[in-house]
């Protein structure tokens, strides 16, 4: 059959070329039928075999389906399966736990070994599989200087206050040679909903073993509170944050920070 003989290896471009040729053929047919003489009409209609026209219609439909499939594939490229996989693992750990108490580091993989977070990124492999010294674990990428995070603080205690926007700006990060499991962080925090935000200084640290940013505001209004933000959502762009009261550690407000692109 003519339609089957076209082969299955046609690309979208091939279909489009054939489709364009057939459109030209139909256009000629319409012109011939409109202005041609009866003998020209009859000869043209005898030449165009009905099966060929049917095949052309099937090619047209196939080209449309392939084009839609191409659009879906292009859209799928924007969906990062790697990030979604780690996001799912993080959600499971949040519900079931990772088997390690407190701020301990779980060595991951097939190992259920737990070590202190203070042994992570100290230059010595304490995990049997060396996971505590891997580059991605000891990376400060989540809180590198210049990163800006936005969230919306929801107050659950301490003060009677309406929910409001909050912005974190990381201004500096560095690691002291004598203590590498943590990096010191300088930042600015704004709780202002106005267009012209007012930023206040904050200082703290980033814990590599727990992927946690802890900041202590240096201004009078919030001197008795601090922020604990953990990157436990499968990527470096989102963190669950709690604003706590010193020294009781009572949670005053919560938010989810999202990095600006």
Automatic annotation (TrEMBL):
Transmembrane segments annotated in the record for this chain: 12-35
Protein name: Hemoglobin linker chain
Keyword Disulfide bond listed: yes
Keyword field contains Heme: no
SUPFAM superfamilies from the UniProt entry: Extracellular hemoglobin linker subunit, receptor domain, LDL receptor-like module
Gene3D superfamilies: 2.40.128.620, 6.10.250.1530
Annelid erythrocruorin linker subunit C-terminal domain: residues covered: 142-257
Listed CDD domains: LDLa
InterPro entries hit by this protein: Eryth_link_C, Eryth_link_C_sf, LDL_receptor-like_sf, LDLR_class-A_CS, LDrepeatLR_classA_rpt
Organism: Cambarincola holti
Keywords: Disulfide bond, Membrane, Transmembrane, Transmembrane helix
